[in-house]
Design brief:
Layout lengths: L11 E7 L4 E9 L5 E2 L2 E4 L4 H22 L4 E8 L8 H13 L4 E2 L8 H7 L20 H20 L8 E5 L3 H12 L3 E5 L3 H11 L2 E2 L12 E4 L8 H6 L4 E2 L12 H7 L3 E2 L2 H4 L2 H10 L5 H25 L3 H18 L2
Parallel strand pairs: 3-5, 3-6, 4-5, 7-8, 7-10, 8-9, 10-11, 11-12
Antiparallel strand pairs: 1-2, 2-5
Helix pairs in contact: 1-12, 2-3, 4-5, 4-10, 4-11, 5-6, 10-11, 11-12
Length: 349
């Protein structure tokens, strides 16, 4: 564990197994310096346990940075369940997951992520109160994906402003990878703004639905990297910016809602050298966790969510500007700011 390449002084990495339900779960708490760790629960059919561990370590670190950049009183954590979200779900499994969350006694709050929806979280809530992203309850607001998508859309406009001198997306071509909850809502915003969309997803039903609604052109998952577009918007899984895909990209910017888009941090420098402006994923996709923070506070306020999201987009713009002025990779600039905020919180407590 401690010499794992993705281990980053995590405060705790907790493995849970429930033989009766088949639950195989890891909850990683990266930092509680800013508040209780918060981050969604992902259910995915990982090829190996090593892949599962790598994912939860990277995602939990990303949540610490994301929450720090969003300026909310939460630390970073993440949960992953090993299983097929299409065939492996059961109420009993999510109750067992709820008991795992409860055992951490409030050090970690969970919510939806890839493969997990609001109804699953409602089942988790039967075993623990440390849950957000619910449809019912005093501070419930439902699926946070629309707020994430709005932030991604606004972030794309910030990238466009620096690339083209205007945030007007009318006539711009955006290649969108992944049209699930976040990607689908993002496509709707982009289409209303007059952008031309080229989309892909492994879920053909979702793909066709979004194409019908937005007039987007569909390409195969492998072909999305070859699209001649203004901006590439990854909204599926991570590690999609790597040596092979970088060589194929024909875009000026990368801005999307997927977590951990860079296979290694050094890819940020390679993007910069290629003249591609990258919106650090954990900054641009912070809308959902802002929404979750409002729920966790116990008194949900849409006005607070909107104001906090607006400040986040200002922060994104500042990261982009500093990176351009100093010729640094954008992810290095964002990492430095996030680490400084977390370190400051540690020393002040």
């Amino acid at each position: 564990m401690f010499d794992h390449p993705s281990f980053d002084a995590h405060e705790g990495v907790h493995a849970f197994h429930d033989a009766a339900t088949g639950l195989k779960c890891v909850i990683a708490v990266h930092s509680t310096a800013l508040g209780p760790a918060a981050g969604g629960c992902r259910m995915w059919n990982y090829p190996t346990g090593e892949a599962m561990l790598t994912d939860v370590l990277r995602l939990s670190q990303g949540m610490s940075y994301k929450n720090a950049m969003a300026g909310i009183p939460l630390g970073g954590g993440k949960a992953v369940i090993w299983g097929d979200p299409k065939s492996g779900k059961s109420p009993e499994l999510f109750r067992a997951f709820g008991r795992a969350v409860e055992s951490l006694q409030g050090r970690y709050y969970t919510a939806e992520d890839v493969g997990v929806d609001v109804s699953d979280m409602a089942t988790v809530r039967e075993e623990t109160r440390f849950v957000a992203g619910l449809d019912e309850g005093a501070a419930a607001s439902g699926d946070p994906s629309p707020v994430t998508a709005k932030g991604v859309y606004l972030g794309i406009r910030e990238v466009a402003r620096r690339l083209f001198g205007t945030d007007d997306l009318n006539g711009r071509t955006i290649a969108v990878q992944g049209v699930g909850s976040v990607g689908g809502y993002t496509c709707e915003h982009l289409a209303k703004a007059g952008a031309h969309l080229v989309i892909t997803d492994i879920d053909l039903d979702a793909l066709n639905a979004v194409a019908k609604k937005t007039g987007a052109k569909i390409v195969s998952p492998n072909d999305i990297y070859d699209v001649d577009a203004d901006i590439f918007s990854p909204n599926a899984l991570g590690a999609i910016i790597n040596e092979k895909t970088l060589a194929r990209l024909k875009v000026k910017g990368v801005a999307g809602g997927a977590n951990n888009q860079l296979v290694v941090p050094e890819m940020g420098e390679f993007l910069r050298r290629k003249g591609i402006l990258y919106a650090p994923d954990y900054v641009i996709n912070g809308g959902g966790i802002i929404n979750v923070a409002a729920e966790i506070s116990g008194s949900y306020s849409r006005d607070w969510v909107e104001a906090t999201l607006a400040r986040l987009i200002v922060t994104l713009g500042e990261v982009l500007d500093e990176a351009l002025e100093t010729r640094q990779p954008t992810n290095y600039v964002a990492d430095r700011i996030a680490r400084a905020r977390i370190a400051s919180a540690r020393t002040s407590t």
